[in-house]
Amino acid sequence: MMLTPADVQSLRFAKAPFGKRGYDEDEVDQFLDVVAQTLVALRDEIAALRGGAPMDAAFGTSTAAETEMLAELDLIKQRLARLEAAVQH
Questions:
Q1: How far apart are CA 68 and CA 74, in angstroms?
Q2: What distance in Å separates the CA atoms of residue 6 and residue 44, rounded to the nearest whole number?
Q3: Among 7, 9, 13, 69, which has the minimal tally of Cβ within 10 Å of its Cβ?
Q4: Where do runs of H (alpha helix) occur along the chain?
Q5: How far apart are CA 23 and CA 38, in angstroms?
Q6: What is the pLDDT of residue 52?
Q7: Model confidence over 57-87: pLDDT tens digits?
Q8: Do the beta carbons of residue 57 and residue 47 sit within 8 Å?
Q9: How many of the other CB atoms lie within 10 Å of CB of 55?
Q10: How far is the C-alpha of 4 from the C-alpha of 81, rounded, in Å?
Q11: How far is the CA of 35 from the CAs of 50, 74, 85, in angstroms?
Q12: Contact in structure between 25 and 80 (CB atoms under 8 Å)
């Protein structure tokens, strides 16, 4: 499944199960997995268009671009945590 900007903009996370606050953690984690897979696919497509070989993250290959993407995902997780905290108050 390829993620589109419309997917991101229209996504609404379910509320956490009864007794918990914020969003359903499993649902958020699944979405972040899709985001990561989309970024990897786009990176590989760009590499292929430039004549390079796709990079296989399964073998632990780390590039500056991959490191940058992981840092961006960490920022997204931090923003989400702040939003969840704001919703709780």
A1: 10
A2: 22
A3: 9
A4: 5-10, 25-49, 64-88
A5: 22
A6: 67
A7: 444 555 777 777 877 888 888 888 888 877 7
A8: no
A9: 16
A10: 23
A11: 23, 12, 22
A12: no
